[in-house]
Amino acid sequence: MDTVILISQVIMSLALILTFVRVVRGPSLPDRVVALELFSTSVVGLVGVYAIKSDVASFLDAAIVIALMGFLAAIAFARFLERGGPRDD
Amino acid sequence: MIDFIKGALIIGGALFILLASVGLLRLPDLLTRMHATTKAAALGVILIMLAAAMHFAEVGIVARSFAIIVFILMTAPVAAHVIGRAGYFVGSKLWSGTVKDELRPNYDPLTHELKSGLETQENAKRQPRETDPD
Q1: pTM for the complete prediction?
Q2: What is the C-alpha to C-alpha distance for residues B123 and A72, in angstroms, rounded to an integer?
């Protein structure tokens, strides 16, 4: 079981690295917002796997909070984009 | 047995998240990237949370992980819709191979107005109906 968890953590870290490449390269601001949302979703997955590994169920609460923050950040960014604030892509 | 199912769920979830990030990196424009990330990443998190529910197997924790699943299922489409809408209005370019853009003939980006193509003088008048109160 520990090996499986290690493998999945390596896979998800690779996913985080690939997402970060898009955050850096992303040609426009909405691309970066999408990448940041994927960031928060994969961190939720990592926290869930870590909760299984460490056998501490309270980490699931942290996962809920991270998912909530990612959603609110996406909504706020979209509002910011639609209102047409100052942008520097 | 339950260890095997748990391991399969965890690896499957991690692979779906990796798939989402590969799609985010490789696909050509904003809307196709969103199509990759929202669905694949939501499925990955759902599989991992199912594995967590099977691992702990207590009522409160199973309910909590199902709450995460429902939350992801409800928020991922909303966030994707809002970002896609903002991206279209901001004017992010569509892929050159895009087949259809149904919003383009009906939307005026300068005045931010939508038209249905049915705005005639005739349609603007209100016709009396049977159900109207006197």
Answers
A1: 0.85
A2: 40
Its ipTM equals 0.90
Reading the block at residue B18, the tokens are 């990796």
CA pair distance B42, A1, nearest whole angstrom: 24
In a domain, A88, yes or no: no
Q: Note down the domain range covering A44.
A: 2-83
A61 lies in some domain: yes
Contacts of A34 in chain B (CB under 8 A): 24, 30, 33-34, 37, 83
> Measured between alpha carbons, how far is residue B14 from residues A6, A29, B99, B106, B111 in Å?
11, 27, 33, 41, 44
- In a domain, residue A89? The reply is no
* Nearest CB partner across the interface for A34, out of B14, B34, B75: B34
